[in-house]
Design a protein that fits this description.
Organism: Pristionchus entomophagus
Domain Chondroitin proteoglycan: 58-151
Order of helices and strands: HHHHHHHHHHHHHHHH
Radius of gyration: 17 Å
Oligomer: single chain
Strand content: under 5%
Distance between the termini: 38 Å
Number of helices: 16
Number of strands: 0
Keywords: Signal
Helix content: 55-70%
Protein name: Chondroitin proteoglycan 4 domain-containing protein
Signal peptide: 1-21
């Protein structure tokens, strides 16, 4: 029996981690690190390792350094609204860089994973700009409090520094090697989302819903794809990610989250 198409399986597994990434590479050579990932103030999350571990093609990787840097700075949960502006600028620059590399290969996974950025920085930019002054004052302590309770950054750090994940990065990417390390992070996400939603809405009305909707954009795409996947593929994904991540692939669960039902 033939295995599921690699790009489809990649989409399902990568979206589960909600990390910035791209299509798996066919290369078995050592994956070079992305630039600009050293000496950055923030949590011990190695963005370049994550991107390399999931097999980001080298030609695409060369465009992602600024985006990786902006993502890592955002995770500091300090001056978050300013770091958000930096992330949007980096997202626009990355899109321009990738658009210029027309022969780099399909971007369907990258576009799906970064759909939350597209939603926040482009589609709903006016809505986020309206709540930005309020969030500028309140969002840092909200994120820090929820992170303290849910260990979101600690789990992401553990994922990016796991020896198996680092080995996957060194060999050019291996999704099955990294997938088994995702469930603790999925649990942290499930804990953090209602925490952030409730606290953000309490001080900046509607802002929590905007944040939630932005975060869930990639998972919507994953759930739609998962629902159409053959039973064999669904079983493979469930086995690799366990029940702790299964809710991220369920259309009904995602709809409930948007109603505040976690």
């Amino acid at each position: 029996m033939f295995p599921p198409p690699r790009h489809t399986l990649a989409t399902l597994l990568l979206l589960a981690g909600a990390v910035w990434c791209s299509l798996p590479s066919q290369s078995s050579t050592v994956a070079p690190r992305l630039p600009l990932d050293y000496g950055v103030s923030g949590p011990n999350v190695n963005v370049s390792t994550i991107l390399s571990a999931v097999g980001t093609p080298y030609c695409m990787r060369r465009c992602l350094g600024r985006l990786a840097l902006a993502a890592k700075k955002l995770l500091a949960f300090n001056e978050t609204t300013a770091r958000f502006q930096d992330l949007c600028s980096a997202f626009a620059a990355t899109k321009e860089c990738l658009d210029a590399r027309i022969h780099c290969g399909p971007r369907n996974v990258y576009d799906a994973v970064t759909s939350g950025m597209e939603y926040t920085c482009v589609t709903k930019r006016a809505s986020f700009d309206r709540v930005e002054p309020c969030l500028r004052e309140h969002v840092d302590p909200i994120l820090q409090t929820c992170d303290s309770s849910c260990l979101l950054r600690a789990n992401l750090s553990a994922f990016s520094t796991a020896p198996t994940v680092q080995m996957a990065a060194q060999i050019g990417g291996n999704l099955l090697m990294v997938a088994k390390h995702l469930p603790p992070f999925c649990s942290a996400v499930q804990c953090a989302l209602p925490c952030i939603l409730e606290r953000a809405n309490a001080v900046c009305p509607l802002s929590g819903w905007l944040i939630l909707d932005s975060v869930l954009q990639p998972f919507d795409k994953a759930a739609a794809l998962f629902a159409k996947a053959p039973p064999l593929m669904q079983q493979l994904v469930r086995e690799q990610l366990s029940d702790r991540c299964a809710y991220l692939f369920d259309v009904t669960s995602l709809a409930d989250m948007r109603k505040g039902k976690f």
